[in-house]
Amino acid sequence: MALPLRRRLPVLPLLLLAAGGLRAAERSGSSSAMEELATEKEAEESHRQDSVSLLTFILLLTLTILTIWLFKHRRVRFLHETGLAMIYGLIVGVILRYGTPSTSGHDKPFSCSQEDRPFTTLLVNVSGKFFEYTLKGEISPGKIHNVEQNDMLRKVTFDPEVFFNILLPPIIFHAGYSLKKRHFFRNLGSILAYAFLGTAVSCFIIGNLMYGVVKLMKLVGQLSDKFYYTDCLLFGAIISATDPVTVLAIFNELHADVDLYALLFGESVLNDAVAIVLSSSIVAYQPTGENTHAFDAAAFFKSVGVFLGIFSGSFMMGAVTGVVTALVTKFTKLHCFPLLETALFFLMSWSTFLLAEACGFTGVVAVLFCGITQAHYTYNNLSVESRSRTKQLFEVLHFLAENFIFSYMGLALFTFQKHVFSPVFIIGAFIAIFLGRAAHIYPLSFLLNLGRRHKISWNFQHMMMFSGLRGAMAFALAIRDTATYSHQMMFSTTLLVVFFTVWIVGGGTTPMLSWLNIRVGVDPDQDPPPTNDSFQVLQGDGPDSERRNRTKQESAWLFRLWYSFDHNYLKPILTHSGPPLTTTLPSWCGLIARCLTSPQVYDNQEQLREEDSDFILNDGDLTVTYGDTTITANGSSGPHTATTSLDGRRTKSSSEEALERDLGAADHEVTSRGTRLVFPLEDNA
Amino acid sequence: MALPLRRRLPVLPLLLLAAGGLRAAERSGSSSAMEELATEKEAEESHRQDSVSLLTFILLLTLTILTIWLFKHRRVRFLHETGLAMIYGLIVGVILRYGTPSTSGHDKPFSCSQEDRPFTTLLVNVSGKFFEYTLKGEISPGKIHNVEQNDMLRKVTFDPEVFFNILLPPIIFHAGYSLKKRHFFRNLGSILAYAFLGTAVSCFIIGNLMYGVVKLMKLVGQLSDKFYYTDCLLFGAIISATDPVTVLAIFNELHADVDLYALLFGESVLNDAVAIVLSSSIVAYQPTGENTHAFDAAAFFKSVGVFLGIFSGSFMMGAVTGVVTALVTKFTKLHCFPLLETALFFLMSWSTFLLAEACGFTGVVAVLFCGITQAHYTYNNLSVESRSRTKQLFEVLHFLAENFIFSYMGLALFTFQKHVFSPVFIIGAFIAIFLGRAAHIYPLSFLLNLGRRHKISWNFQHMMMFSGLRGAMAFALAIRDTATYSHQMMFSTTLLVVFFTVWIVGGGTTPMLSWLNIRVGVDPDQDPPPTNDSFQVLQGDGPDSERRNRTKQESAWLFRLWYSFDHNYLKPILTHSGPPLTTTLPSWCGLIARCLTSPQVYDNQEQLREEDSDFILNDGDLTVTYGDTTITANGSSGPHTATTSLDGRRTKSSSEEALERDLGAADHEVTSRGTRLVFPLEDNA
């Protein structure tokens, strides 16, 4: 499909690719040695400065690491590592801003008229020698004199696409890969609702409120430049990407309630993807005709189409590369060579990103779903060594990238040269964000509670409301386009929102948890005690049947539907687990089934009992309630996906019994306990 | 110190750093929408092409990995993974070269006269809008029409500095970090001799022979352009960097003789560093006056000074950051948080590179010595988890980078657009390389055998002669400057040398090993049996004293000198092992000694017995035999280094006893065995 996103020229992987054998300061025998020497000296100086600026970031990260250690060592919880990284960034930013000389002598802009469209490559004849120049970008006429303001500040300013193409992918992949599947899938329906409906609601409410603020600013003469409705909506999309990394870190440390954790984590992971695609769609909203910023139904539906197209396309890309990796690792004996296996895993995951970008989809979104698919299927095929290798590799990459972004944010507050701080806009934004979050959490929770047996209590809702921190994704989205006045104002405001939420909200998490009476120190594998006041659990007949009922209800129906398909077809095809395909596929597929089933599966066959699944509900509901979101639950099955095929066939095998076992497969110590708890063996015998 | 290296403008880390908030295709309200759209489409197209070309490399690597697996699975040894990567690269290169259209329409060069020196930034006024351009490099007038020949070929061509700044550092660091210390240090003297003297000899012989070839070519009219003596010497330096990765992989697999392995590995690791610095020094050789390519004593000594300066500076940088990391990991309890520890380790190792580059030294060389220092000290302080994490992390990075370079080499044979293949030069180069290697191995081995008790046998010498493969480093050095005709010819020739040696020599390793009767299947922890014909071991009196004598002789005297200093002072300061400093330092340092000694050391103290070391030889010899190379053995001791201080003081503690124990510290299962074998406990009691 077409890609209607605005893409900037200097995009990353490209940054690594430089054109041809063209070289700066080439030796040319005829030139005067002095001149050559001068150019060379300059190039050397530039290289040295670049090294120094990267070194600055590395030292920042090193300092952050050492301080984090000190904090962890002393069990300080009021400041998270990301908040710390920001503080160090701020300090260095202040030093760079006010401690370095602010002019650079030699790089005066040179003017040269050209009638046509700008070329991407320029050859310039300088006293007989030809030099090649490449297009960096357009500069608004008023800003020409700011271009070369401060060499050092320029050096520490990264291309915004670096965030999207280098730093975000490992963070997002890690989020998908480290997903705690059991609790995520148990709350799948709610998570999807929060991520899709919630983010959309939040985006529109914030957008509209901010449009009101902008109108007000124009009225009182606070705003001189243009600020369109679409800009407001874009701001809504940017700022709707929540990133409760601080909260989740504390949850992890204190072992807070696992369902709440799953809800927050799942929402934040998916709403990053939604926010990216949403902002792209808003940018794609280009009404035709004279008034380019009024409402246009055609353009609106085009934007919706773009949203669906990009989202589903990126999702498919991620799922497909995940599935391919799973097949490769299943059908080769690559696990005898963990290094090769890890390298393949890394390359395939990276190729998802590039593939999606090459096809015009969103790489970051594709990488997220690739991560989830890899964790769900490929992980099971890996050797024990590769499992820990891949986990550790992405953990380190994620850690470095995340702290880098946060320290860069601190730095950017002082080194970014086009800040526009408007007090009215900023106060308006904080209020809009608060209202947007409230309008997203409370009504949706109410609606979800109608369907959930395992209700989301008020305390949980308050905690979710509180945990709406903004982080790396909002920053990356905001810095992507800072060309116009309105976008600069949005960027500066986003930066302040991130600072405020990470420091204040992040620091207030522990007090908030105890104030809201949310359980801490929970064993993630134990279900909450029935008497706990965080849950409004309906009591069953006896302890056994009660447990069973509750589990059936806990497993979202959407999930159960997906689960039986996954368990009966996808797992056996893609991994070494699950029931043999020969029993689940119709008999005419016998040959294929035998080929695809791995020998290990037959060994497990004895333990499986045949039992009709009663979980397949009418899947018509799906599309009514969740609209376009069903793709997430149903579409990831790769080449074999066909929702209708589920209905016509009796699904055999004890999918429910295997349910808990499979979900716990990632952490083995959980598995047996989880299975026992839910389905005591004597109950089945 | 001053940095006389020629540095090109588009240098890596810099690639990640792009200037300011300047953006391509900025939105400007007043511009016509159509024009903007066109620029945007172009940008999008360019981004997509970049993704596709990176994807090409990833698919190449994936294919390579799968084929490697197949080869390993079937125990095929005639083709190593690097050779395979080159073949796949070649195939894709052919497809790109002949399968893609060769023109790109819109990027015609634009000429614009400018009187002054070229600016690094250019502002161009295109029908009222300003666009920023950055300098890419100079183009010789004859090549202007080649600039934009083929978009796809341009896209797959990386900036040469990418190799130096992104791909080589992990390879070189891994080489240092994975050094098998025990056998490396046992052969330290020989390795240093091969690496320093050998590389210099090889460089000069190849350079002079090639100068003869060039003269011959000029005589028969085969050479039209300039080709100076310094160019020939540069070629000698480039092609002297050996990279027996294929041979060593086979050695590893077959468990071939460990001493031969250590000699080859140590030589190749260090001669990479020597070759880089040598080539920089040759480039720095700029005689003054009219005839800029005649011999000039002042310039020559300046080059030698540059060599010594860069080498020792880079060495110090690497050692210092390694020492700092060791101190940090020793004195903090970071090992409770392996993720933080690994991240810190990674950042510190990377900062070495940047620090060296920022100071004007050579990052790659610094990284090598940093790797060795990290392995020797920091590794002992890491938690068990971090040990495997860091090893695995760098193993994966090294694997990916290496295979990437080799597949790029295959690709470059067809996609590089300025190849100059001259049959005379190529044949001359092969002969010169052969003679250079012979003149380096045989005479040096003869000289070394005069001093070595544990002789290097003829078979070993032949094997070393045979193993002079050229690889990633030669390629990276050659591609760094391909501006002039002579450099292009050197690059094309280097490419062919790499292909030939990797395929033919790499494939012939196994037959060669058996033909030369070199032992395979050796337990690396066992000393060779005295009757083995690869070694001319002199028989001692009894089995015990004989063993002891041999070990004393085996441990090079240079090493023993270094060892007692390292064991008594550096290890206790930097790690948790070794004797307490309170016993080794003079009494007036008592307080410092107590502060620096970690509590664990006192626990080990009981086992240590005091014994005078008889290994401190007159260190005047060092400077006579090894000249500038002594810095490698003695200079790495950080802030406390002072060679003279060794003489004035009685070195206590049983350094010899601890020698073997310490060397084996990296692989614990080796430790106890090694210690027992050499110094039976009853012998000391």
Task: Walk me through what this model shows.
- The structure is a homodimer of 685-residue chains.
- Chain A is mostly helical and 685 residues long.
- In chain A, 65% of the residues lie in helices and 3% in strands.
- Chain A is built from 29 helices and three strands.
- Chain A has helices spanning 12-16, 33-74, 81-99, 151-155, 160-177, 181-186, 188-219, 229-239, 245-254, 258-284, 297-331, 338-359, 363-381, 384-415, 423-451, 458-466, 472-479, 485-507, 509-515, 543-554, 557-574, 581-584, 590-596, 599-605, 620-626, 630-634, 655-663, 668-678, 681-684; strands at 113-114, 121-126, 129-139.
- In chain A, strand 2 (121-126) and strand 3 (129-139) form a beta hairpin.
- In chain A, helix 17 (472-479) packs antiparallel against helix 18.
- Mean pLDDT of chain A is 72; it is low at 1-31, 103-115, 141-148, 527-552 and 606-685.
- Chains A and B meet through helix 1, helix 2, strand 1, strand 2 and strand 3 of A and helix 1, helix 2, strand 1, strand 2 and strand 3 of B.
- Strand 2 of chain A pairs parallel with strand 1 of chain B, so a sheet runs across the interface.
